[in-house]
Specification:
By secondary structure, the chain is an alpha+beta fold. Helix content is 22%, strand content 52%. The chain is built from two helices and eight strands. A hairpin with a 6-residue loop joins strand 7 (141-153) and strand 8.
Length: 182
């Protein structure tokens, strides 16, 4: 009787091992979705031309599945003054593990123009900024973001500025029960 029981256990163990291997393979083939880490929004660069400010905003999808941005609210502030404020509905599909850029052009405030001219001339080495806002996605709802960083002039390119983010204050999905505020 004893040999028959061990014979029955071997096929069961083999079946369980095969099932575990199949589940591992299926899990490995599914798209990699990074939960709790919203897509990044970044300020790629600025260009000051006459009284117009051109900004390039990058939306990065770090997940293994496509996403679509349906609206955005973006504010870039320098010394408690709006450098850039932009909000509008849009239809911006972003493939998995890729990025798309949005170009924004608007009139520049005289104080902001003075700051950027001072940065461009070398009078200022850098200019601290805050980037904050939200992105509405079909997949995840509203995602809020807040960054701090510095603007620097681009050597050899007058009127062009690049940014470097130094701190991510908060990246979070908006909680509909809290109404988006803490």
């Amino acid at each position: 009787m004893e040999p028959m029981m061990s014979y029955r256990r071997k096929p069961m163990a083999l079946t369980l091992a095969t099932l575990a291997l199949a589940m591992f393979v299926i899990a490995a083939c599914t798209p990699n979705v990074i939960r709790g880490r919203p897509r990044f929004v970044s300020l790629c660069g600025l260009n000051l031309a006459d009284d117009r400010l051109n900004a390039e905003i990058r939306f990065s999808n770090q997940n293994g599945v496509p996403m679509t941005i349906s609206a955005t609210e973006i504010a870039v502030t320098v010394r408690d003054t709006d450098l850039l404020r932009h909000g509008r509905p849009l239809d911006l599909p972003i493939d998995a593990n890729s990025a798309e850029d949005l170009r924004i052009e608007q009139a520049v405030d005289p104080f902001v123009r003075t700051l950027l001219v001072s940065l461009d001339s070398g009078e200022l080495n850098s200019l601290p900024f805050d980037l904050a806002g939200s992105v509405q996605t079909a997949e995840d709802g509203t995602l809020r973001f807040e960054y701090t960083g510095y603007l620097y002039r681009v050597p050899g390119r007058p009127g062009h500025f690049r940014s470097a983010v130094t701190q991510t204050r908060e990246l979070r999905p908006e909680d509909p029960l809290r109404g988006g505020t803490d």
